[in-house]
Specification:
Distance between the termini: 21 Å
Shape: globular
Strand order of the largest sheet: 1-2
Number of domains: 1
Strand content: under 5%
Length: about 260
């Protein structure tokens, strides 16, 4: 087993554990709404910076400067999550679900869990593919994913609780979304050596997962930041997330892991 594969598996395991931790926290009510909102804002800024400053340039480089095809794959990833979260599961809401009347129907909660599993599957794909491109990109995407893993766990567990399910069901749902992350990692690890039409698998998977990441940051997380309850402090955390990406890059460069 190569060193890259070991890192990919470790990243996937830590991300999945963070999903479970989010479920545990929402079940026990140990993390307040303000803290959750700050974490969502920080993750949104980091993810947006990662997509525009790291993933898209790396994707275009994988396609030898061609732009149209990788951008079509990116758009496809974005629309895939729009389909899953707001067409298949129209009651989906990122963050802690407090509107119990909206999630009262069990089928709505189950659809929401299924939608979230699709997007956490691509969390795993993103981590694995980015790690295959370079150590730095893999680490940065892992951090981007990790920052929104707690909110994912909150989301899925609170949907089940709002639908009248037990705490055990809420925790099980967070386990399922964590397992979906590991499934995305496993798929890339298994098929990493495959070329499609003279391009490596990463040339297709990276922009697809970038579209998923962009959707989560811009359409799921940012609206949570921009609520009336958020305020200027929460908004500033988005900018802090962008700065955090730059800080991590500097740290990696100093450690000799810049590429």
């Amino acid at each position: 087993m190569s060193k890259d594969t070991i890192f990919i598996i470790l990243y996937g395991l830590m991300a999945a554990i963070a999903n479970l931790l989010g479920g545990l926290l929402v079940s026990s009510r140990r993390l307040g709404q303000a803290t959750l909102r700050y974490l969502i804002a920080l993750g949104a800024g980091f993810m947006l910076a990662a997509v525009f400053l790291k993933i898209i340039p790396e994707t275009i480089a994988l396609w030898s400067g061609e732009v149209l095809v990788p951008m079509l794959w990116l758009l496809g990833g974005y629309l895939l999550i729009q389909l899953a979260e707001h067409t298949v599961a129209p009651h989906f809401h990122f963050g802690e679900e407090t509107h119990e009347d909206a999630m009262l129907a069990h089928h709505a909660a189950v659809a929401g869990v299924g939608a979230l599993m699709i997007h956490t599957f691509f969390d795993g794909v993103s981590i694995a593919v980015a790690s295959l491109v370079s150590f730095q990109l893999g680490f940065l995407i892992f951090i981007a994913v990790l920052l929104h893993k707690l909110p994912e766990g909150f989301t899925v567990a609170s949907m089940m609780l709002a639908a009248g399910r037990s705490r055990r069901s809420a925790l099980l749902s967070s386990v399922l979304v964590g397992a979906a992350t590991l499934a995305g990692v496993a798929l890339v690890v298994i098929f990493q050596g495959i070329d499609l039409y003279s391009h490596p698998l990463s040339a297709y998977a990276l922009p697809l997962s970038a579209g998923v990441t962009l959707y989560v940051a811009a359409s799921d997380l940012i609206p949570e930041v921009n609520t009336r309850e958020g305020g200027a402090r929460t908004s500033l955390m988005v900018f802090a997330g962008v700065a955090l990406l730059y800080i991590f890059e500097l740290i990696l460069e100093a450690l000799g892991a810049g590429h």
